Amino acid sequence: MSEELLPFVEQPGQYIGGEVNQAKKNLTQCQVKIALAFPDAYAVGMSHLGLAILYEIVNNMEAVAAERVYCPRRDAEKVMREKGIELFSWESRQAVRGFDILGFSLQYEMCCTNVLTMLGLARISLKAKERGEDEPLVIGGGPIAETPEPLAEFFDAFIIGDGEESLPAFIQAYQEMRNTPRHVGRGRWREEMLREMARRFDWLYVPSLYEVKYAKDGRIASFEPRFADVRAKIRRAQVNDFERCPGVSRPLVAHTKIVHERVAIEIMRGCPNKCRFCQAGYTRRPVRYRSVERIVESAREALKATGYDEVSLVSLSTSDYPKLAELIKRLNEEFAKGRVNVSLPSLRVGETLRLLPEQISVVRKSGLTIAPESASERIRLAMNKRISDEDLTAGVAEAYKAGWRQIKLYFMAGFEGEELEDIEGIYELAVKLSELRREVAGGPAKVNVAVSWLVPKPHTPLAWWGQKEAEYFHGVRRMLRRRQSRKHKAVQIKFHNVERSVLEAVLSRGDRRLGAVIEWVWKAGARFDAWDEEFEAGLWERGFEAAGLEASFYANRQRDYEEILPWEHIEAGPGKDELIEEAKKIRGLWK
User: Fold this and answer.
1) CA 532, 534, 537, 538: dihedral to nearest 10 degrees?
2) DSSP three-state, residue 434
3) 316 in a structural domain
4) Which segments of 402-444 does DSSP mark as H helices, in order?
């Protein structure tokens, strides 16, 4: 296999396996074999902490083996199809089709065509209803599992929520049920087992157990279980004891360059800020913390196992970790002599930056990331983004004094109530913060501005909003580009792809009928849609036309509070009534 593939692809090192700290069991001695799949390239998947955690947890189970699989790039896919090479696992080079379970980590909407690429290369039936007993169970987890309907027909089941306890429970149940006598014919045992699992686990969603009907206007008329013993609502699995929740003690070290070459440690789960646009902030509740001692111990163990020289403190809002100053101090004492850096992915302005004294040498000061989201305090207030202009200015000034030389600002456009001055304010605020450094360090700071387009996400108070039309976003981009071209070279603005953001809105807010669009565009050649150089908006436009659907129905349409939403059966966060009350509060602020 290697001789047929590796000489003919770019960066063959990403396909060879055998990385430092790889877990490799004798598959013939294991009762359950699961392929953990990341539907993106090796460089991205190897950097994902969630998959690494599950890889270590499952391989610590007796008589169970977990091996990895990533999505081959276009050149490798072409060779594999031409030479009849099936998709294989990275550890043992075994065909994925021979595993018992194929588990996908679904982190973002744009991975959907890669899921089909991997199923196709593995020679696994694309649609769950067409799979026989000799094919693996195809399951999905991660953030996209909380809005799963566009992918529903391709998956046997979705695990909703935290996977550290739910995935091992699913595997153990599979092992138990597979060893019991089968009383049904070929292809029916899968249905029987999945139905039993759905009865047993309130966090398991099996799409085939539910029937969807649509009204003439295209909205969902009903969404009901097909059987009386199947629950109507799926609840999110949750790890309560986060302190003892397993992390990664021996991270894999890649052969080739990957996105993040560092030790990543999740210091808390959830976010206390409750920003009204943030799906993760609503679905990851409540906030749970790890102790300083546990974090330092984990860093020590992982650094020793890898040789990395950087630790990244990961969470939705690292600056809200209640003992951040103490943690930084401990990491400094432990690792400064070894020249190990600490990366803080995002800091909230205000008191947090003032807590970081200049002598903390382990914190990287080359760049600071802040997400004001809007240049307007009025919109920030409506979105519950608790950053005032005064705090923002004071916090950034303190960062400059502490040695930071550049900042990155994240903004979104497309909020309800947004006005022309709010858009122009993005550039004006960036210039102001750049010039602020002259007062403390003698020269302007380099400010990189990233502007994205608001996607009103499910499980948030914005779920009933319609996304603004693509032309609105193009207008925002033109306006800011004109402002940028005038002066102040220290400020650079980049923009997300508008058409891809519209598609993200469609796929995050869509129903099962979108499966036909996904399959069409995949067959037409769509791959790696999250990558700028790969995404083809025109292909998706033709896919919607072929399926007889309109993207605007899903992305731009305002929804009534009484409408049945495609994700309503997934209880991933606060209840519908609570979210509606929050939505009404936002509207009340505009009056």
Assistant:
1) 150
2) helix
3) no
4) 420-441
| Nearest one of 49, 64, 509 to 265, comparing CA atoms | 49
- Report whether 424 contacts 483 (CB < 8 A): yes
Tokens of 4: 């047929």
Give the CA distances from residue 58 to residues 66, 244, 300, 488, in Å, rounded to whole numbers and listed in that order.
Answer: 6, 16, 23, 52
The answer to whether position 174 is within a domain reads: yes
| Strand pairing report for 157-159 and 137-141 | parallel
69: which 2 tokens? 């699989």
Distance CA 239, CA 248 (A): 16
Question: 451 lies in a domain?
Answer: no
Per the rule left: phi > 0, alpha: psi between -120 and 50, beta: everything else, 516 is: alpha
| CB distance 336 to 290 below 8 Å | no
Predicted pLDDT of residue 213 = 98
Q: Report whether pLDDT(354) > 80.
A: no
**Structure confidence by residue, pLDDT tens digits, 527-579:** 999 999 999 999 999 999 999 999 999 999 999 999 999 999 999 999 999 99
Are the beta carbons of 433 and 256 closer than 8 angstroms? no
Beta 204-205 vs 210-214: how paired, if at all?
unpaired
Residues in the chain: 591
Q: Name the nearest CA neighbour of 461 among 308, 591, 588.
A: 588
CATH of the domain at 35: 3.40.50.280
Distances (CA, A) of 457 to 31, 115, 290, 580: 40, 22, 28, 14
In a domain? residue 530: no
Lowest mean pLDDT among 305-314, 482-491, 514-523: 482-491
The tally of domains found in the chain comes to 1
* φ, ψ of residue 331 in degrees (nearest 5): -65, -35
Adjacent-strand bridge partners of 407 = 368, 447
**Which structural domain, as residue segments, surrounds residue 99?**
2-235
Residue 483 has pLDDT above 60, yes or no: yes
Q: How high is the pLDDT of residue 587?
A: 75
Model confidence band, residue 183 (pLDDT cutoffs 50, 70, 90): very low
| Nearest Cα to Cα of residue 261 among 316, 306, 294 | 306
End-to-end distance of the chain based on CA atoms, in angstroms? 66
What is residue 244's three-state secondary structure? Answer: coil
Band of pLDDT at residue 363, cut at 50, 70 and 90: low
In degrees, to the nearest 5, what angle opens at C-alpha 292 toward C-alphas 291 and 295?
90
Residue 165 to residue 486: CA distance in whole angstroms: 55
Query: Which residues are within 8 A (CB) of 471 and not within 5 positions of it... i.e. 6 or more apart?
Result: none
